[in-house]
Amino acid sequence: MKNYYDILGLNTLATKEEIKKAYRKLSIKFHPDKNDGEPFFTEMFKQINDAHEILLDDAKKQKYDGRLQDYLSGQDKSKFINELHVMEEKLRKDREAHLVNLREQEQRLKNKEAQLTQLREQELRSKVKVHSPAQPLVKPVIKRNYNHIWDKVRKWKTTRKIAFWVNICLFIYLIAMPQKKHASLKADFIGANGRVLAKSGVNIRELPNKESKVIIAIPYGKFIKVVGSGDSIEKLDGKQNRWYRVVYSQTNWYHLNNPDIEGWVWGGMVEDL
Which of 49, 76, 102 marks a domain boundary? Predict the structure, then answer.
């Protein structure tokens, strides 16, 4: 008769929580999938499951405790010990047989690797030409092809010429380009085009006041049209200038259907064209 308490490493007074805890620990340790399916671990895993099923059921546990008590008394105790020895011997033999099987598989793999090595050596020997003494070895003449090197040289020369003429054209353009003098917006520039001067861009606001709501932010270099000027003069960043009413046209491809935006900008952020 199997002593399920000994299998779980518990005594006969163990609680259900202790039984569950021992079952979880041992089922993970002796699970066949984690031990390459060895018979020893498979048998132990089966006994652990039986112990868990019987000891957690009150009716089964009560019957099992009565039979175990009778079994362990007198001659039953010696029979139980003999059964344990027989079971341990069986498990030991199964484990030894499994180890022998593993060694045989390993030896077969080594033999296959040796055969493959011999086949590779034979192939290499067959590829090597053995010259007889009557036929002296002749050093082969290697013809070198330098066309690919000259192709690279020609491409480099062409690229250098193109870069040279591009720089010449750019230099002539910069010299011949008419220079424009920019000045801050004034009251007499109404109706003219202006360009955003601030590197960080400029905000178009609803009212001529720096505290009013921002309609849109115009990035640096964008063009706007001045349509009017305000009466208030405000000092920003240490400079005084008036507020101007401007119109900004959104000409980007994703703003084709949007109307022009009209609002107020501070004159110090825009320059006249």
Answer: 102
pLDDT class for 133, splitting at 50, 70, 90? low
Q: Residue type at 84?
A: L
Q: What are the backbone angles phi and psi of residue 242, rounded to the nearest 5°?
A: -95, 170
pLDDT of residue 185: 44
Range of the domain at 70: 4-102
> Do β-strands 270-272 and 193-196 pair in parallel, antiparallel, or remain unpaired?
antiparallel
Mean pLDDT over residues 249-267, rounded? 69
Of 37, 70, 102, the position where a domain reaches its end is 102
Least confident of 10-24, 154-168, 253-267: 253-267
Q: Which amino acid is at 230?
A: G
Residue by residue, DSSP assigns 118-162 as HHHHHHHHHHSPPPPTTS---PPPPPP--HHHHHHHHHHHHHHHH
